[in-house]
Amino acid sequence: MDTRAAADTPEAAAGRLTMADRVLAAGSAVAADAMLPRLLAPDRARRDPDLVRRVRELMLRADPRGIAAAQRGMAARPDSRALLATLRLPTLMICGEHDVISTRDEMRALAATVPGSRFVEVRDAGHLTPVEQPGAVSGAILEFVASGRPPAH
Question: How far apart are CA 122 and CA 120, in angstroms?
């Protein structure tokens, strides 16, 4: 869900390392300020300010050491795209329509690589699809599980 298998570009990895250092020096608000606008669907702040406030509060409560470790880990992750074609299990790929971090085109490409996988795009959601559209995400998962469709071989 709203993920990627490719390694970061050198520029993206450097940006993550910079973010890790900044968060350790100045606190979780650095990450919240930088990331919150990219996590939710456009216009979410106007339509649901309470949700935006709750997400920001969660981010502010995060331990800066954890944020920094996550940033460093993502900066160092290997490219795993070649492994996707070897998967032989039911796979559901879910992506928010407005995800600018793990775009729907990128997620569609991942789904096309995994034999027998299913792709679901969730309307009116960004990167935090289950937070913005919990009913749609739960429905997609329930439908996928109920289908009992085995993976293609």
Answer: 6
Q: Give the tokens for residue 39.
A: 């996590």
Tokens 């039911």 found at = 90
Gyration radius (Cα) of the chain, Å: 17
Query: Is residue 33's pLDDT more than 80?
Result: yes
Mean pLDDT over each residue of the chain, to the nearest integer: 95
Same domain, 107 and 127: yes
- Of 113, 106, 61, the residue nearest 85 (C-alpha): 113
pTM of the predicted protein model: 0.89
76-80 CB contacts, 8 Å cutoff, 24+ apart? 76/13, 77/7, 77/8, 78/7, 79/5, 79/6, 79/7, 80/5, 80/6
Q: Stretch 22-39: mean pLDDT, rounded?
A: 97
CATH code where residue 99 lies: 3.40.50.11320
User: Exposed e or buried b for every residue in 59-76, given b needs 16+ CB within 10 A?
Assistant: beeeebeebbebbeebbe
